[in-house]
Amino acid sequence: MLAAIFVSGAYLYGAGEGWHEVASFTLNTYCDAQNLVGNLCQGLFINDYYAGNLIFFIGGVMMNTVLLALATQQKMDRFNNNDMIILLVNSLVYAFTWFAYAAFDVVLLGLYFAALLAIISIAAWLKVKRNMREYPYITYSVVAYTLVLQL
User: How far apart are the first and last CA of the chain?
Assistant: First the structure.
């Protein structure tokens, strides 16, 4: 079941990105993005910013949820302090990429999905919090996605 969800998520992730890129190109080539006149340009805006991004983020959430579910089942070697520093710095960088995307986007879909991923990763983290050094992907995810919401 998890494999089917992951593969479906990967499909939606790619399809949403493709949908977004084609709509974005067409919108910015044939329409004045600052003054959307007519059904075609308004429809391209919706396809670019909402439909494409929504499908993309749904796929991303599906894939990340599967990875988090699998991570709760796969204990790793305990991370030492140096490993944790690297993990936390990397989480911070990843959080800033999400923030840079979501904070300056015309629509807030990226922020909403970062919040959803924060909730999902917190739920996974609550299962393993006492041994969080043995579950680096979950620790990484909970730090990154909760930081996005704080920035």
Answer: 35
Which residues span the domain enclosing 18? 1-74
Please give the C-alpha separations between residue 11 and each of 50, 110, 141, in angstroms, as whole numbers: 18, 19, 22
Which of 38, 55, 74 corresponds to the end of one domain? 74
DSSP string computed for 48-101: IIIIIHHHHHHHHHHHHHHHHHHHHH---PPP-HHHHHHHHHHHHHHHHHHHHH
Answer for the pair 142, 121: CB distance below 8 angstroms, yes or no: yes
Instruction: Say yes or no: 33 and 85 in one domain.
Output: no
Q: Tell me which residue of 66, 89, 79 sits closest to 135, measured CA to CA.
A: 79
pLDDT tens sequence across 16-57: 999 999 999 999 999 998 899 999 999 999 999 899 999 999
Do 120 and 107 belong together in one domain? yes
pTM of the model: 0.89
Contact (Cβ atoms closer than 8 angstroms) between residue 137 and residue 67: yes
The domain boundary residue, chosen from 55, 74, 93: 74
